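In the laboratory, one determines a bound structure by crystallizing the protein with its ligand and collecting diffraction data. In a computational setting the workflow is compressed into a single prediction: the sequence and the ligand go in, and a structural description comes out. We illustrate the idea with protoporphyrin IX containing FE.
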Amino acid sequence: QTGPTGCPVSHGAAAFDPFSDGYQQDPPEYVRWAREQEPVFYSPQLGYWVVTRFDDIKAIFRDNITFSPSIALEKITPTGEEANAVLASYGFALNRTLVNEDEPAHMPRRRALMEPFTPEALRHHEPMVRQLAREYVDRFIDDGRADLVDQMLWEVPLTVAMHFLGVPEDDMDTLRQYSIAHTVNTWGRPKPEEQVAVAHAVGNFWQYAGKVLDKMRANPEADGWMQYGIRKQKELPEVVTDSYLHSMMMAGIVAAHETTANATANAVKLLLQHPEAWQAICRDPSLIPGAVEECLRHNGSVAAWRRLATKDVVVGGQPIPAGSRLLIVTSSANHDEGHFVDADFFDIERDNASDHLTFGYGSHQCMGKNLARMEMQIFLEEFTRRLPHMRLAEQEFSYVPNTSFRGPEHLWVEWDPAQNPERTNP
Ligand code: HEM
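The predicted complex, in structure-token form:
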């Protein structure tokens, strides 16, 4: 087998399948061979060049002109005609937002919409996040057993995301139901018979997002990032376009929700698998911010991201032709021995943990990173204070097969409610 440059494809490259269980369970381990022997390779199964080392990936993020982010939200598995017709029947037109916008449009928009992400603006959301976390823990604290994903981590970040965006309370339930379909539609490999059902859900999500946006336009002074965008549109109509607002209303929920839900589930799992680290943060909560960063590095919720080469270029010594698609495996970069000493070792006091590329890097770096960090810190503060004696239950972990968004579908934990600190020391 040969790649697009005419070079033969190695055995590892030919076998690479990001929808396989190996990738789903542990992406950096799955591509260890590549990181060590063939850091940039062409995957015939995916039709992408796969990049696995820290320095190469950071250099790609740094140059968003040569490596365009325009394909970041493109469907990785093209859908069939029937599903496309269903999407069209809903007027589905998800377009450029921020994460997939090229320059020169991207930077002015990013700047115009940044203020709600400043630390001062985010502080104002902290009581809401803490209250939600407490309410959800209250519901199961006496049970001795919980699936943290189903009973808390799926819903709380979604509710926080909707508050942040400014979604009216009455619309939250409907949007909650639609949001999952979007991930499968974009990053997954739905079977032909699933594609049509997914397309209906995505089409409904799109239309509903439009209705919510109209409601927001009627009350543009309300709190919320979307309302902030609506006000900015009056000042800068060329920068904050209608198409952007409608697309962001839908993509924003996904960007803020699943990433954070998955990141927290991964973090709790990892910490409970390392009891000495868990006990350390229970004893000393000032270690939590560092632990969050190390969890994002070691087992983040975005495993890989995408870029399009706009010209012939060389990455890590490998010539790549213009028009090539690149899968940049950020989770592999985060385990690169060339950047992180003893990279597989989980160390909540690691000095350079925050160098991880889970939030991307450079001009498109995640705008919501501090909101995500705040949520993760609050969840861990609440868990370590109220359920320091919790442990992982016996279970197999499953993941929704996709290249990019990664977190266990369920996370069962258990504890002895008689030992709850609130009972023993009320
Ligand atoms: C962009 C990851 C949470 C909003 C991104 C990118 C990644 C990412 C990988 C692309 C970076 C690049 O191309 O360089 C994550 C992870 C999160 C998270 C792992 C949670 C742990 C959030 C939250 C929000 C958010 C809570 C809140 C609204 C955004 C936005 C962009 C973005 C608006 C586009 C920035 C731009 O292109 O200029 N995120 N994200 N994210 N994220 Fe997040």
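Strands lie at 40-43, 48-51, 67-68, 145-147, 305-309, 313-315, 318-320, 325-328, 391-392, 412-414. Keep in mind that any predicted model is a hypothesis to be tested, not a measurement.
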